[in-house]
Design brief:
mainly beta, Tachylectin-2, Chain A, 23 strands, 4% helix, globular
């Protein structure tokens, strides 16, 4: 057992148990998406009923203090290629004053965090959330991540899709491979799209800001991957949309920063926490609305890590069953300026 997380490799529930009301991948989709859906403040349409993760349940720690490609850059997010058993990490240099706003390193690793390939991104963003879209066994996936770096804390204003290419430096303004702009065009979207992919139901979630103000409101919208890949990210193609609770509504402080979002079936999962402080997992029901949330749990996973900071969450399929993975960056013992990455997961579901 490491920091209160069991190392048991538990077999999760099967697909029928998780998606109780669903029928097939995109078939667990939604009703009534042919016309534009209702606007801000309420949930739009509904998704099929599913079970949700037990945030206090058992799990494991598959990656412990791994050194990614650039040890002086902090891990911000990660996602799984569940077809090829690979993990992709996004790293951003600490401190925007370093003169490289929007520059990211992507590390491709095995399931234990050993680096197998790298890719440099210039002028993209902060890397606070990402999605991996597998394209088949033995092929590299498409990555979904913010693009078009802005002055908003080095964050990207658009949503980008491109194929991972080992050893390549990809410039956002002068791409050496095709970058597909997949910025949503839904009516409530203003800026800062943050993607996550549910590999279980084959859907894309986008977290985004609805205004340009400092007190901006955050929402999420969900699309079938077939529509997202084709660029159909408008009002009429949303499966569901709802507000994300702010820190006050979640009972968190301003120091509890948003650190990642992912999706599995009917529920979105968010990660919060600041450097050296407590970290929280939050469950949102896509079929609910407003500032409501289903569950909140303070996790002590990785509590012994020096300089522990929550960074990223994703869905990992293991033997066909989903796991809720969440990560932390920490300072290495030999050099306080270098950082490593750890990943934990939850595997139990609540009926």
């Amino acid at each position: 057992m490491i920091d209160g997380i069991s190392g048991r490799n538990r077999r999760g529930p099967n697909r029928r148990q998780i998606l109780r009301g669903g029928a097939g991948l995109a078939g667990a989709a939604v009703v009534g998406t042919a016309a534009p859906l209702v606007a801000a403040g309420t949930a739009s349409a509904t998704v099929a009923t599913s079970n949700h993760f037990s945030l206090s349940g058992s799990g494991g720690n598959p990656i412990w203090r791994a050194t990614l490609h650039q040890p002086y850059w902090a891990m911000q997010s990660f996602a799984y290629d569940n077809v090829n058993s690979r993990v992709y990490f996004a790293q951003h240099r600490i401190g925007d004053s370093a003169g490289n706003n929007g520059d990211l390193w992507i590390s491709q690793t095995d399931l234990s965090g050993n680096v197998l390939g790298t890719m440099a991104l210039h002028g993209f963003g902060h890397g606070s959330s990402m999605g991996v879209e597998p394209t088949g066994s033995g092929t590299t996936p498409y990555l979904w991540i913010e693009g078009s770096d802005s002055d908003d804390n080095g964050a990207g204003e658009k949503l980008s899709r491109f194929r991972f290419t080992d050893g390549l430096t990809l410039e956002y303004t002068a791409p050496s491979i095709t970058i597909y702009d997949r910025t949503p065009t839904i009516s409530s979207f203003v800026k800062l799209p943050r993607p996550a992919i549910d590999p279980y139901t084959n859907r894309l979630l986008i977290r985004y800001a609805t205004s340009d103000s400092a007190s901006r409101v955050w929402r999420l919208a969900v699309f079938d991957m077939a529509d997202a890949v084709a660029g159909r990210l408008s009002d009429g193609y949303r499966l569901v949309e709802r507000a994300i609770p702010n820190n006050d509504e979640l009972g968190l402080t301003t120091a509890d920063q948003f650190q990642g979002i992912t999706l599995c079936g009917q529920y979105a999962y968010l990660l919060y926490g600041g450097p050296g402080g407590p970290s929280y997992l939050v469950t949102l029901d896509l079929n609910d609305s407003g500032g409501s949330y289903y569950d909140k749990f303070e996790t002590t996973a990785g509590a012994s890590l020096p300089g522990r900071e929550a960074q990223g969450t994703a869905i990992w399929l293991a033997s066909g069953a989903p796991r809720l993975a969440f990560g932390f960056s920490s300072k290495t013992s030999g050099d306080p300026d270098t950082l490593d990455a750890s990943v934990f997961y939850k595997s139990d579901f609540v009926s």
